[in-house]
Amino acid sequence: MEKGRFKIKYSVQFTFMTIFFLFIALMIALLTTYPTTSSRDIVYSTKRSSMISQSAVMSSSLSVLESLNSDNVNQVMELVDVKSFDRIVVTDGSGMSIYDSAAAGHVSGIYVLFPELWDALGGKSSFSSRFDGEAFFSHAAAPVYSNGVIIGAVYLSEYDAHQAVLINQIQARLRSVALTSGIAVFLMVFLFAKALTRRITALVKAMRIVREGQYDYRLLPRGGDEVTELQEEFNDMTQRLQKTEELRRRFVSDASHELRTPLASIRLLSDSILHSDDMDERTMREFVSDIGTEAERLQRLTEKLMNLTRMDGKLQIVQAPVDVRRVAEKTIHLLAPLAKKCNVTIFTDFADGCIITASEDDIYQIIFNLAENAVKYNSFGGNVFMSLRAEGGFARLVIEDTGMGIPDEDAPHVFSRFYRVDKARSRAAGGSGLGLSIVHDAVKTHNGKIYFEKRETVGTRFVVTFPLAADA
Question: Domain spanning 317-467: which superfamily?
Fold first, then answer.
């Protein structure tokens, strides 16, 4: 998020650690409060049951008396275990104490104002307990009945520090265990977050390095989690970027070199015309004709580069039913002058029914490039054999020549851009090294396949297949 000119940034490590810190703090709080609270509730419940029961026993012992006075109450209380409690008070029906274990001689003679006692005089047994962190202060009271009439009440009081000590010890131990465990877990989480964010930071750093153009930078994936998978994907992406960048640089370099040659020739010829005052008309015509030839070569090269750019950009291609035989026959007709000039004979064997769904211009370009190469790079007086058949749901086009063939070491690069098998002969023939690359990309665009092989005698055989149209 951004506020004004200041950018507030939260790291993954900070967020991760904050969440776990709050979680651990909550767990420690629960571990140190819930058990002690439960222990206090258990002690409270036990004391309530015990003291109410004891007060009821004492009340029953006193209920045999018709009236309560200091003599008969003392006699009864001597039979009761009064040492179990810190204070025992017996009052008459008006709330005046008759017996008080905390007073001298156990006789008080004063009005007692304890709430529990007054509840008992009202006919209801009561109990209360309070824990101040050091001891339990518990109080219980029960009415004393005689012939159905309340003649007094019994009050019990207890101060229990022993149970409080046990609870405090339990709480202290739980706090110590929870704190130790919390610190250990926090350290483990910290180390885990550090390791995780270190890998993420390394990935971000690698992205910045690649963004600066260093496409050969690679990460060293470790482990088998999602971050490792992300690092492997990053390495794969940078490898493809590196390959694309190398192809781009090579393409730019080769394209610049190819464009420079005709441009240099045009400039040289034009400079010769401009700086020659006594050039005869015949020589000038030759120079102008050469300039036109180089300009045509430059135009062809530019068109081929534009075709490659169109295919690389995956622009939308309008497809329609195309009769491959008709396109092939048209191509042979256009190549007839070149074949006659090179003294090459073209033999054809085209079958009907080879209808495919494609762009007619692309199919023409595929056949023209392959047939033109078969003529230009053939031996003088050689032959070109072209056949077209519909086989197994595919249109199969075969173009063979009797030329010099393709050496084994050049075979992997035949469809690469600007690559020429015989560079000297290719330049002499006006080749740019783009024709077969255009053919390869065009065939792939229309879901076809292309491959080449040596003929049994001499020359090369190119085979192109396209899926037949559904309604062919």
Answer: Histidine kinase-like ATPase, C-terminal domain (3.30.565.10)
